[in-house]
Amino acid sequence: xxxxxxxxxxxVFYRDSQQIPVFDGVNLEMEPGxxxxxxxxxxxxxxTLLHLLAGLDQPTSGQISVGGANVTGxxxxxxxxxxxxxxxxxxxxxxxxxxxxxxxxxxxxxxLTSLSSSExxxxxxxxxxxxxxxxxxxxxxxxxxxxxxxxxGIARAIVSDPTxxxxxEPTGDLDAKSAExxxxxxxxxxEELNKTILMVTHDAHAAEKAHAVMxxxxxxxxx
Amino acid sequence: MKFIRLIWVNLWRNKLRTILTVLSVMVALFLFTTLRxxxxxxxxxxxxxxxVRLVTRSSTGITFPLxxxxxxxxKAQDGxxxxxxxxxxxxxxxxxxxxxxxxxIDQETYLAMxxxxxxxxxxxxxxxxxxxxxxxxRGLMERFGWELNQNVTLQGAIFPGDWTFTIRxxxxxxxxxxxxxxxxxxxxxLYEGVNGNMIPGWYIVQLEDPxxxxxxxENIDRLFENSSNPTKTETEKAFNxxxxxxxxxxxxxxxxxxxxxxxxILLIAANTMMMAGRxxxxxxxxxxxxxxxxxxLFRLVLxxxxxxxxxxxxxxxxxxxxxxxxxxxVNNFIQGFQVEWSTVILGLTMATLLGVVSGIVPAWQAMKLxxxxxxxxxx
Lengths: 223, 379
Hints:
The complex is a heterodimer.
Chain A: E1 4-15, E2 18-30, E3 35-39, H1 46-53, E4 61-66, E5 69-70, H2 76-86, E6 87-90, H3 102-107, H4 117-130, H5 146-158, E7 164-168, H6 176-193, E8 196-200, H7 204-207, E9 212-217, E10 220-222
Parallel strand pairs in A: 3-8, 3-9, 6-7, 7-8
Antiparallel strand pairs in A: 1-2, 1-4, 4-5, 9-10
Chain B: H1 4-11, H2 15-47, E1 53-58, H3 70-75, E2 80-88, E3 102-105, H4 107-113, E4 117-118, H5 121-129, E5 133-137, H6 138-144, E6 151-156, E7 161-173, E8 183-186, H7 187-193, E9 202-207, H8 213-223, E10 231-235, H9 236-245, H10 250-279, H11 281-290, H12 294-323, H13 341-367, H14 371-378
Parallel strand pairs in B: 3-8, 5-7
Antiparallel strand pairs in B: 1-9, 1-10, 2-3, 2-9, 4-7, 5-8, 6-7
Helix pairs in contact in B: 1-12, 2-9, 2-10, 2-12, 2-13, 10-13, 11-14, 12-13
């Protein structure tokens, strides 16, 4: 059974009385442990698809299920709880809280669990070890390089052991060397820890790191 | 508790702004607490006094004295148990800033009528038996570091000359609102010192039955109605209230100022929280993406707002409590002035309320934040 199933998904944005269709009848299946990259021109709806998968937005029609859970049928409150447990989100601009250290940023999703302080500490340490940022755990985001910030962002995404990692242009704000390190890290997470990853990117080289590359253009998704 | 660190670091992300807001709230709550205590003290003053005692004064005004002959005539009235009299002395001790109330009293009758002044028996006897003796409140003794049997010289203002008294007795009031900052001495000493050129300032009449007060008041004032010194008689409580209202409607004024200050600070605190909320739109969107519930974000913002006002409020309220504790100098002007614990609790409640009201809009905005639009702003 597929981990992610998207059936006949349509999304229409409204600007005043004008309808702007983003995609119409999109279908997608992802198996557990799969690493897919999603490419497409700006405005094609790549990020929108990630937002829909994460339950941050509602489709106009169609159905999304992740790990057997019907995401489109959940209420706002249920979605937040579900997201905390099942979605690891990696942002293009890292989006770490500047007032928290790297470790404290990574701990944020765990604050929503019933883990004790020491258990949270252990999980954070493990996540930082995985992304090889343990030596920077007490550093604030302003004291980290872009690549290190993104590694902290990835640690935050994996710390609660989510069902799927959604990465929205994770290398879009990085230099080539740092971008390569982040791509290798994602690949390692997929290969060694069997993490299911859907990565949106503009970079063909980055997309090649995935098992398969999908293209979204003019509302049509193709492999 | 696990979110306290997140709230705390958010609180101090703009240290200067937070400190200024805390200081604003501190000043506001200091003023609120102090002004509230003024009102309480003034209300307390008007509550002092017995329903069993009447005060008979000149109908022209408190500064106009009454003939000595009124003493016997008052005593002869139906329903009157006893009568005494007193005068305002208005002397200066070293410097005019050392103000305190001084009364020349008919010592035997006066003390008999005021059992609320607790005086050791030996000191009472010493005070009654010596013409130049003074009876002083405990608070006044402590204020000037006076000791029993010490001589104190007052410079007369209404009654010119230097007047030396020997402190022979110290009283402590049963009720703090009675005050312990008064200075009493023998009327005879003053009378002789001015060669008999004075008469009592006002009379105090003790009733057999407080229920008879209206009738006795009417009888007394009618008795002197057509004399050259007509009187105005009222219960001691009403007399004290009249003293307070001589200041004007202080209570209303103080409450109006307090309310204005409170609302000004409400706007400042609300503005601070709105600014903080606007700065964190992107971060709140990220937190929602991580799975933070709407209600949780609402509570985090609200607690942060309450923390700011509670810290400022506690500093202001306890600052006022500490500054105006027992023996504070304001007590010399407003009898019984001090910050009560009930006022402290009221101040802290107001501070908390201030935090809730000022934080409710940004908390609501954080809760209702549309994640997608907010994420696009930070992208």
